[in-house]
Give the backbone structure.
Amino acid sequence: MRILILNPNSDPQMTAAIEQTAKGFARGAFEVSCRSLDDAPKFIETYRDKLQVGPRMVQLVEAAEDQTDAFIVACHSDPNLDALKEISQKPVVGIGEASMKMATLLGHRFAVITTDRHSIPAKVAQAEKYGLSRDMVSVRAPDKGARYANETELFLALARTAVETDLAEVIVLGCAGLTGLDRQLQRELEVPVLDGVVCALIIASGLVRYGVSTSKVLGYNPHY
Amino acid sequence: MRILILNPNSDPQMTAAIEQTAKGFARGAFEVSCRSLDDAPKFIETYRDKLQVGPRMVQLVEAAEDQTDAFIVACHSDPNLDALKEISQKPVVGIGEASMKMATLLGHRFAVITTDRHSIPAKVAQAEKYGLSRDMVSVRAPDKGARYANETELFLALARTAVETDLAEVIVLGCAGLTGLDRQLQRELEVPVLDGVVCALIIASGLVRYGVSTSKVLGYNPHY
Amino acid sequence: MRILILNPNSDPQMTAAIEQTAKGFARGAFEVSCRSLDDAPKFIETYRDKLQVGPRMVQLVEAAEDQTDAFIVACHSDPNLDALKEISQKPVVGIGEASMKMATLLGHRFAVITTDRHSIPAKVAQAEKYGLSRDMVSVRAPDKGARYANETELFLALARTAVETDLAEVIVLGCAGLTGLDRQLQRELEVPVLDGVVCALIIASGLVRYGVSTSKVLGYNPHY
Amino acid sequence: MRILILNPNSDPQMTAAIEQTAKGFARGAFEVSCRSLDDAPKFIETYRDKLQVGPRMVQLVEAAEDQTDAFIVACHSDPNLDALKEISQKPVVGIGEASMKMATLLGHRFAVITTDRHSIPAKVAQAEKYGLSRDMVSVRAPDKGARYANETELFLALARTAVETDLAEVIVLGCAGLTGLDRQLQRELEVPVLDGVVCALIIASGLVRYGVSTSKVLGYNPHY
Amino acid sequence: MRILILNPNSDPQMTAAIEQTAKGFARGAFEVSCRSLDDAPKFIETYRDKLQVGPRMVQLVEAAEDQTDAFIVACHSDPNLDALKEISQKPVVGIGEASMKMATLLGHRFAVITTDRHSIPAKVAQAEKYGLSRDMVSVRAPDKGARYANETELFLALARTAVETDLAEVIVLGCAGLTGLDRQLQRELEVPVLDGVVCALIIASGLVRYGVSTSKVLGYNPHY
Amino acid sequence: MRILILNPNSDPQMTAAIEQTAKGFARGAFEVSCRSLDDAPKFIETYRDKLQVGPRMVQLVEAAEDQTDAFIVACHSDPNLDALKEISQKPVVGIGEASMKMATLLGHRFAVITTDRHSIPAKVAQAEKYGLSRDMVSVRAPDKGARYANETELFLALARTAVETDLAEVIVLGCAGLTGLDRQLQRELEVPVLDGVVCALIIASGLVRYGVSTSKVLGYNPHY
């Protein structure tokens, strides 16, 4: 089984970190690699960023379709996910949908911690798209000018507020760039902390093993 | 006041029809023109179609920004609308959002009639995105192989079923290609029948006159 | 085109202010005037106030029906709006529905600022009636005994809290008596601030130009 | 304990029938009477009807306030109920809210049967106002020109369809004029059939006995 | 009329207090008694507690079915209520559903005050089960280590915060163990404070008098 | 890795079939077995059935806790799932929640096919509990007295109606007893058909591999 992870930005460090997380989960049970888009923005943040990388994501999936058993989109906003589900015969899983839906299996309410207040409205809209508004108790992002010893302390503080003030029972890492923070936060907070890359791998590898993929009967049929 | 309508497909007939509808509404009170995208698909139907035309829509808006007071996206699925609202300082209105929200002001429930069953799931998702699921009583599209004397008879029949069976009080034309059908259907059915091009013009020209545009304080801020 | 605005209270200053706002928007493109009800309460606040003015509003609309192309109800709680839509053949637009629905076109979430905590439950119920609970992030009203240099400072402070704390991207003035505050607040806060009188004029004048009015096929049919 | 039922129309037969139902339930445990409004319409159906009777309903409640322990509004659309809750210190219960909320205690989903298709949109809006859209599986009204041996057969047929086709487990009589039909329909269909007059009496008499009435702390405070 | 109240825990003091409240409301108009389960936990708090007492609750209802006209479950989480509605031919009312639904008749929004933060997620889920999420503005429970002169002061403080901060108009006592606090809190706060035991008695005794019970046509039919 | 599947009924054939499905999916990658409850009902259908088997399910989980890495509840109504999540430190997954949430990743809307009309209201309530009402387009069960060549034909017909009439894009097998039907229905209908046993295995085995389990911070904390 070969799973290909698309990192829709062009940050090689993030791509490497995602791949490390993925291989650490796979432990050889299946092949997994992560590819980024060469001329993509350094970071996917705006609606325009998501739109700009769309055609390149399509190209990459089409080129890899034959040698790949499942695709994962490793940006927590799940950019262009509907189009990829439509064009591929293979399972395509977004780390946003996978992590937020997995969270609902592990506790009553979850919170998303993310890197910037700017992305809160889009994250709220994303939860609505998936019918998860009720289950997502809050989105926490750092205030402008917040000062912390390091990134881990910053996100730990956000997650702690989500647990203690918002009564979140599960924390979802709301950005692929946070990959790897799950263990440490989980240790400190004693609540499940979900890395979308792992959640998407669970579902994608499971679907491949099951032999089930996106329905082509109506809305995801590319040849209507 | 100059309003530019983007027809994101490449059908010159549809572009001409949209422009005719728009000029017929404007009656010289403001300038309005419709432009299509040269290398776009003939018809925008799939998720991939919507994604493919995204970068070109951005280019077109950016190129026209200085000479334009408001933009309208003339595809009823409102493709890439969030990105255009983000990049432009001018009002950007989708014919889908405009027509469906206008419909809620004219009756208790509305129905959308559209060209193909394939687009029903995406139309339902679009209504959810706008919080209109409760108000959209049905989406009606022709069955495969349905035979009618002509297109008008076909859509008249769909709209009549929406009114009589689904108790829709307002009909929304769910495709820019249906522009111009509103008068005839309204005459036959004696219910409001809304052409999204006109609805978007009402709102866009009104916002220009008012001097109000998309909020740039958070989620539509292009420089987060 | 002649548009008649009903101010359902009896405050001549508010009536004058509303008319000034309306004429300032119309700039001669259409005729617009505002009339109040002689023996109405000074201010419409309670459920009883709304009910008491109902029969007079009906009379006024019936008397003016023939010389009027569209009616606007200039009280943000939209009192008796369903009945007026039912009795008139002309478009009838409430400033509450117009402003709150317009707000959804300009940002992800809006807030309403209003004059009194007492009206918060009714404003929440009104948003639910229109299916806008999801989009209305908060209703902000002054605490009892709040002290401010002047009214503008007071409502500016409320709106600022809505933007900074509640993450509202658009502000809706929740009372016809606040007409005229939009420009100043918009300048200070750099977010769209919507005056319902203008929003209703945009829609009402647009509907007249389009030749579309309330559906009479079922629930607004006065002769069932 | 004295409970006063307001029939907001002017049909003396309906008033008598409502009073008979009420006395039959009370069986002397409390006093109950029903009064109609002299110059009201014969039947309350349109939005205008509801509005027209508002000031008279207020007068009647104010005049009876001192000698009455609780009020019931015996029109299933609960006209002007918020205003009456506001002006009275005594419990005020609508037969619509009472019957539809009672229905949720007796089965998974309920249906409302009513006298005219015209009132379906308003009934749907009423269920939304009470947050009951999820629980109300359908509103059934006779088709125009439907022929039945008698009224009972007609409403029995509607209720049967609601049970067998819509899977309603409880039937709510959606018009005060249907009072008295509950027993017969219940016998035929073997499902609970609720008369709103009785449901409102259960709640109103219970609240009087409990010594609890409408909250006056905020939204129903008449002296804000 | 004989109503049997089940206290699903084994605390004799709580059983006595519930019975005292019940007899105080009944004032001889009907017979009412409260029974606890011998080997039940001292307090019902966890999901496991609720499940453990299920079979005993079934036994108790079956044994008492013939001599009882209605059953009440006196634990605010309404444990095993669906099963009891299914097995009994008599009305079965939970104090949770009765009090929360009654609250919606008395004010725009209600809050629940309860004994422990631990039960907040389950209370939120319970409100969702009944379709009351919109109407329940908050659940307030004491912080760990909160210090108060006595229990009444503690719950008074919680309820006051719910009224002043959350804008609750009605308070629901979220635990059968709080029975008897309603009068005192109501006096202090001047808002309705509802004891679920009384609310359930109002509905149960009313249903017995009406001769209506749980629908057996589909989902509560024990012999499907 | 050892996963234990609980079949809460006492049908040895169903237990064997579930185990066969599970082993067929595991293909030796992890150990999996299925156990039934000796004195349970032959079939879990009523609310009472679910309640009766609760204490035995708790016993079984507690007894197996130390030798088991994850538990699966193999009844599509997910009986007593909250309690099992609470008492175990290991992941506990219900086949109902797993299959319905997995379905949302593979198509726009899903339908559940089940064995009896009687269980439709409970299935609808279960979807609401998981926040999936919007995504579950229908529940289809055989009419009483429906005649089919064999069970497969019967459920194939139900699923086909769900796809063609209700526009379901994914089919969920709504009963553990239907295990094994997925392949054949999928072949015939060309839509994903999900067996909850497999879906739960995907998630449970993934969570074990990930090292994440139910949150114990609040609502599932057994020692509150």
Chain E has two domains: 2-96+198-210, 97-195.
